[in-house]
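Q: Got one fold?
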Amino acid sequence: MARTIRLTMAQAVAHFLKAQRTVVDGRQVPIFAGVWAIFGHGNVAGMGEALYQVREELPTYRAHNEQGMAHAAVAYAKASFRQRFMACSTSIGPGALNMVTAAGVAHVNRLPVLFLPGDVFANRIPDPVLQQAEDFGDGTVSVNDAFRSVSRYFDRITRPEQVIPALRRAMQVLTDPADCGPVTLSLCQDVQAEAYDYPEGLFEEKVWRVRRPRPDADELAAAIEAIRQAERPLIIAGGGVLYSRATAELKAFAGMHGVPIAVTQAGKSAIPDDHPLCMGAIGVTGTSAANAFAEEADLILAVGTRLQDFTTGSWALFRNERARIVGLNTAAFDAAKHDSLPLVCDARDGLTLLSEALGGWKAPAAVEAAAARRKAEWMAAVNRAIAPSNAALPSDAQVIGAVQRAIGGENSILVCAAGGLPGELHKLWQAGKPGSYHLEYGFSCMGYEIAGGLGVKMARPEADVVVMVGDGSYMMLNSELSTSVMLGKKLTVVVLDNRGFGCINRLQMATGGANFNNLLKDAQIETMPDIDFRAHAESMGAVAVKVSSIADLETALAQSKDNDRTSVIVIDTDPLATTEAGGHWWDVAVPEVSPRGEVNAAREKYDAARRAQR
């Protein structure tokens, strides 16, 4: 007869989590780096007591905001290349719902996080309980059903024994390279406290290793034949290259076969920007070099990318009528997009097998010659964009240049998420080693930046983590600035204050709209705010300073290296200035009719651009 141990359901969860292991760089470590928790009446008695019992083996971290702590967990997984991850526990109601946005971030970016929101009473005796949202037509619904659309696996635990298969299924999803994403186990609060005789085997240590699926022979043969026929090949490297730890294989493939590489936001740093065959960013926020190759390519080897619209220029970037895509991806869903030749396999093994089969095949010499010329032209444009000027307000590009010069070394990791900065960074930032560029641009979630920086620092404590954030994102979610100070996780945060949502204001203008409700000066307000971001950051325990020039910014950045805790540097910037070089059309629907002539003119350009879509 199997041996059992009597535990509450919450205790079973905690003991299970601490027993899960993985191997990183040859060393066995816990796969869960810890649990973020904000306690309330839906989890403090159950999960709270359970986490206390395992606090030495499975640390619990306290945050200020549920969304913020969940963003930190998402960033931790991304910075760990999906090899390790975290869990998040909340009360019911608003505490749980606050994590849904972060679940969306994890889902879109295919990142593993375990969400453990509290839920209503399974026995329903005290219904409706505090914070319970009642559905008039369905007694089984709670607010946690909102997680279903942004979870790769969702389960509601209404009996203590149900957690046994649920936990096992959760681990399968969290560690699967194709199905990877957030898991939500909705824990009814009364069931958290109920006891059950669990099999001891549930709590035995288990080591989870990276699965590397090999390609189908026929798919591999078709991909090889397509590449051999190519005269203008291009590689698009996505985040899957980093998650597979395939950066060396990518570099070797490009060098052996003379194929230029363009990178997505998630794939940037998969190959160093100074590599001769790295053409930099692709698509809407792409470089002129990468986009020129994309427009003429007859073969696109898309490695570990989901080919979202910013990457493909809303599917108007690939202009060659003979262009074929080979989709090398662990997820068949991504590998077959837009009639691609699918090559469903691990990125590292797939690139190795392709290279071996191609042997001495190499792209025409003209391709490498064009790469050298286009890269040189693009780098000249970069240097012009980031150079300081005498303008009253610096551009985002000039601030990026200052940050790169001051603290953009080998040991730094750049973190950003939303607004105008990601586009400028994608073009201009010169990434070095793998993982040194950390952008959340799948969901482009405002408010991710500071919390994400905290998660990155927890995953990579030896690195200098630099967060760049606009005033709009800073205002949406800044509370984990204090958490970084509390936990002793030093960040360097550069706040660019353009007094509003400058990126969307520029998009509004580009689509013919009037300046309206984006910049503070164009919003319906009675008193123009003058927010002192320096004082605010200082009040949360950070070392903070405001600078008035690019030179002063570089000095402040250099001085921040000696600070013993998180440092915040604020600088006013121009809301309209942006890098004109590079880039591509993006499909943002413009109204067909409008009383504004500017909108009608923008619609004509929009209709013309749509004709280039595949």
